[in-house]
Amino acid sequence: MIREERADVLVIGSGAAGAAVTKRLADFGGQVVCLEQGEWVKPADYPSTQAEWEIQLRRGTFHFSPNVRRRDEDYPVIPTGGNPPNVLMFNAVGGSTIHWTGHFPRFHPSDFRVKTLDGVAADWPIRYQDLEPYYDMNDREMGVAGLAGDPANPPRSSRPTPPLPLGQLGETIGKGFDKLGWYWWVSDNAIISRDYEERPACDLHGKCMFGCPIGSKASTDVTYWPKALRKGAVLKTWARVREITLDANGRARGALYYDRQGQLHEQLARVVVISANGIGTPRLLLNSKSKLFPQGLANSSGLVGKSFMIHPFRFLEGVFEQRMDGHEGPFGIPAFSQQFYETDLKRGFLRGYTFLLERSFGPLHHAWGGFVNQPVPWGARHHRVMRQRFPHIIRITILGEDLPEERNRVELDPETKDSSGIPAPRVSYTYSENSLKMLDHGLAMARQALQAAGAIETLDSGIIAPAFHLLGTARMGIDRRNSVVTAWHQAHDVKNLFVVDGSSFTTSAAVNPTSTIGALALRCADGIWERRREWS
Amino acid sequence: MKNLTRRKFLETGLKSSLVVGSSGVASTFAHPEVSANPQKEDLLASGFSQHDHGVLGAAMDEIIPATDGMPAASEVGGVEYLVHLFGQISDLKMTFKRGVAQLVEISRRRYKEDFLHLSRPQRVAVLEELEKQSPQGFFATLRDFVYEAYYTRPQVWKLIAYEVYPTDQPGPHMKPFDEVVLAEVRRKPKFYREVQ
Known about the structure:
Helix content of chain B: 40-55%
Radius of gyration of chain B: 25 Å
Strand content of chain A: 15-25%
Low-confidence stretches of chain B: 1-7, 9-38
Oligomer: heterodimer
Number of strands of chain B: 0
Shape of chain B: elongated
Helix content of chain A: 10-25%
Order of helices and strands of chain A: EHEHEHHHEHEEEEHEEEHHEEEHEEH
Radius of gyration of chain A: 22 Å
Largest sheet of chain A: 7 strands, mixed
Largest interface: A-B, 91 and 77 residues
Low-confidence stretches of chain A: none
């Protein structure tokens, strides 16, 4: 085994959280080493540079699911439960920001007080106000297009760049929302509409769920990492972490990892930060069993891997007579509505949901059935129906808040291992009654919105396997009996071990989480730096 | 603000940031060549008989027929595209060989004729039976790959007015965002819960 020189801070994972922690600590002057199991993605390799980019929706090395993609750096994820999730993630420098929508909403203040307000789940140990300056900081680092002034959200600073074009579909659905008297707003997206720092403005090509080759869409390989490396941070790629190592006092000593050749290394550090996503992080903690921690590291509460949350969602597509050209322009989320975001008991469920107005892929995706999996009929009607649908569709995604339930969990699969022999995660998930009622309500309201906007037909996805936003499996809290980490992301059981990523979410809110993950990571870095004298 | 081109960004920003092996955006929009007129030997080398190819072509032309001013699937190189994929996706060739055999078997059972000798309505009836037998099995595979063969062809894109906007060329013109669209919402009161 090769023992690497001791760093101040070891960060595991280079995605939305790991990159932000690393850069912030490097700015302070900390000596930071980050281990990433993937590699740098070359912009020219993005499917968005290929004519047949849509094929990646079904197969190929940029497929959203690691179980389909099967790159060397991926690990298998075994789905199970009543609604086995189709887990989406990416393993590379930049993590899952390599192919994400770029949507960049914030939590609401009420999202941090779910127990107090609605009597379910738990309150976060921090408030919106604690995170607000870090949201702003993360917005500046990532580069955001948007507009302040949404009356359905707390006031926020002016956005780094102005909103991206709404397109025909954005303007059309906006009129529908207006007709119903509903709240809606142009979205914050981490896709810059003007040249920003060293990156060029989005040139509206679309296709960018499969990577933005010009760097207008923020992925941390083009935002945080170049700056972190210039500040002296060290990023080791093809470094697959097997377990966290401990010293005789039960403090984290570093991590064991395999390099690409299978050689085992130990990276030593004063402080260890795990940012490996809501599945990778509990997997690593559970794989780090020892005499001191027989249930897995930082798991005296027994909660590591439990209360896995993944946003319940449902798609509704509206077919319009006029062209909507949803395949043009940055993927992102042009507009959203939070008319049904806060709890209203009259609706028959707790908490709420967001309507995301989404752009789409190209003709092949539509022929295959679009997001609602209703293929264009074959035979004599084929061309007629294809012309009706493409490019005439507006899609609304109903994205609901998932509440933590212990039966939904990440465990180690007893049989499956990755290519390094490390046990793979098994993810069990079943929708709650609350989620199903919420999605039914959302479907009826989305249909109303599309019809108000002029849709001549609507196509429903039905209940589908949850797929994105991996949250809650090492949650923050004050009481060590019902949480894994403190308000500063410090493991209750291991003082120099920190967990910050989707797994540290106490509740899921009803918004895409990446903006909050980045903000939490910056705040976590500040906490580590303030207490740096404790670590030496 | 320095006005950066895409290529400039890739050459300076990324490379100076140690993006290993960054080679820039592809200078041409990569599009694998699939010949619309392959040599007979190439087709046979795929392990499919002439008859298999004929059945496959006839079946795909009922899935995407030449109607409404659009060409049929085989007219845009659909068979050749699938044969090209047989060499790339393991088991796909066997799946199609078995599927073609199913079509032939249904044809003989229903009409005592080979699929190739059926009338077009009879071919449609055979495909409908196959779909009924295995909606998520071979029929779905056949339909989806025929759609793929069709909607990845540039000549089809032109006919359906799909502009792909290659990354090394300008993107579409889109009307810039205008705040006027938010006038109604701006008049509304605050709509989030305050929390102490």
